[in-house]
Amino acid sequence: MYGYTLFLFFNFVGSSSMAIGTGYLLGIRVPENFNQPFFSVDMKDFWARWHISLSTWLRDYVYTRFVMDSLKKRRFRNQRTASYLGYLLTMMTMGVWHGLTPHYLVYGAYHSALICLNEALDLYWKPFKKLKKQGWGQIVCVLVTFHLFAFGLLIFSGRFF
Amino acid sequence: MEQKIAEILAELCGVEPEEIEPELNLSEEGLLDSFAVIQLVLALEEAFGVSLDMASLPREHIATPAAIAALIREKKA
Fold this sequence. Notes:
The complex is a heterodimer. By secondary structure, chain A is an all-alpha fold. Helix content of chain A is 76%, strand content 0%. Chain A has helices at residues 2-25, 43-47, 52-72, 79-98, 102-124, 127-133, 135-156. Chain B is an all-alpha fold. Chain B is 51% helix and 0% strand. Chain B has helices at 2-13, 34-48, 65-76. The longest helix of chain B is centred in the middle third of the chain and has 15 residues, at 34-48. Chain B is globular and about 30 Å long. The interface between A and B is medium-sized, with 18 and 11 residues.
């Protein structure tokens, strides 16, 4: 699990760096695709740092559009329902983006559940925000986030299905 | 305008309006997540009677209270 996680990370960072370098040679500024993702303190933080080109596109064109439209049309009694469904839709789209085989769909569903849990902790467990910011709490959050992601990649690898 | 923006942000971020300084970086400080950004845009549209298209709205235009005020002034002009 750890080997596969590190392999994917370095492989992906390397190919992204080649794309960025090629862009510079052609005079095009290509933004960074990773921002120290293994220092993320939770899954929302992680998705702001990992495969940034894809996650930003999904945020802007799936999550934001779905949630904005839902809030404007008052589709749900509780506004947070729109956000949770938005995360589900976004992460399932991310899974489908990788392929239509079951492990990619489960990978999307797994990350939907993690992001929704992350949102619920932010909202309802007040110490969580403080915990993430400093000291041992932050270190534990970083380690937990890394392991949750690494387990997700085990699903992604297709070994379970 | 700045006072109203501070009130909107304070409510969304769960802090007092006095804590909202003009150059406070809202996303770097972890005060606004993706959902809060959408709530902010809807609140600004309602409060100032402007239309903000999120698809063509760079995040740096809503990165700080001062940037938000500049954006609203531009939209109202």
